[in-house]
Amino acid sequence: MNVGKIRISFGGSEQNWCLTLQLVSTGPGFLLRAKQMREDEIPIETPDNNPKIWRYMDFSKYFDMLTTNTLYFTRADKLEDPYDCSGMQFLIDAYKQLPPAPPEGKEWTRKVNTFGRLFVYLNCWHMNDGESAALWKLYSENKYETIAIQSTFGKLNSEIEHKWARDGIHISKVKYDLENAGEPIGNPPEGRLFSILGWANIIYKRPSFAHEKELRAFIFQGYDKRKENDTLRNEAHLEKLMKERDKFKRIPIDPAKLIEKVYVSPLAKDLFVELVKNVSGELKDRVLKSDLYELY
Predict the structure, then answer these.
(1) Does 296 fall in a domain?
(2) H/E element holding 10?
(3) Domains in the chain: how many in total?
(4) Which of 15, 169, 195, 253 minimizes the number of CB atoms within 10 Å of its CB?
């Protein structure tokens, strides 16, 4: 039984491609089928100008970046949002039309959702001219010891391009218009089981996250299509793959070339601001406490 279909199209009249998804009920679970696209048609959208970008973090992550001279790329299945980098985000309404799934059906859904996300690594930034009060609160467990590094798209691109020789590092604005990305269509072409292999899965997020105004650098690496079905049908294979895959990637960068300013939480104590300056080395003069809540 076909439960839902969507076609996502990108590009203009001279060059375009489409990703066709079909949710098919299979009794205890479902299949998600797709027509794949060529890599030279990845729907990447970079900023039109050279906007400021921000990365909010706690002190330990900032210190780690300085001491390792690397950017940290997180594996997608470690993200809080289970739909991030998953083709399932395009078919949520279709899922709701299905009857309640038995335990084995839910387990199959979990495996499909997990499998493809194992091959994507992300480093995420916020695009904005100024600070975001909401992101100060969201991206640290301790609001008094949050740090925001401020750079630009151009500096980020310059620092990380050509530093992942095998597959490359891509940078794209995240798009949040899921409803406008697709249109109902007839039966799609026959295709194999689709987990997260469409590039659209990485570049699109649900509208609930639009406040993030995200620019993401990502690596898609290590996927072997020949092993897909065997892995999904064998729990032991999937668990083994989850353990074998790197939980993160480190990309070498020069913090002094990447970072324009280092902002310390507007709620930070003076002693913590001094600590950040003391560990920042040649970046010390770029460290300042946010004046977001200062009265003048």
Answers:
(1) no
(2) strand 2-11
(3) 1
(4) 15
Give 16-53 pLDDT, tens digit per residue.
344 444 444 444 444 444 444 444 455 678 898 899 99
Domain assignment present for residue 283? The answer is yes
Three-state DSSP state, 57? strand
- DSSP H helical ranges for the chain: 59-68, 92-97, 103-117, 133-138, 153-160, 178-181, 199-203, 228-233, 235-244, 255-258, 270-279
Does residue 295 lie within any of the structural domains? no
Task: Please state, in angstroms and rounded to a whole number, the distance separating the CA atoms of residues 215 and 127.
Answer: 6
Task: Please report where in the chains the tokens 């080395």 appear, as a residue.
Answer: 281
Residue 28 to residues 14, 86, 103, 110, 186, Cα–Cα distance (Å): 43, 20, 8, 13, 25
The answer to whether 94 and 3 are in contact (CB under 8 A) is: yes
Which residue in this structure is represented by tokens 């992101």?
Answer: 135
Contacts of 58 (CB under 8 A, 6+ apart): 139, 140, 141, 142, 145, 146, 147
Return d(Cα 183, Cα 105) in angstroms, integer. 27
Digit-coded pLDDT (tens) for 244-287: 888 999 999 999 999 999 999 999 999 999 999 999 999 999 99
Residues in contact with 97: Cβ distance below 8 Å, sequence separation at least 6, in sequence order: 3, 4
Q: Which domain holds residue 108?
A: 2-289
Residues 267/143, Cβ–Cβ less than 8 Å: yes
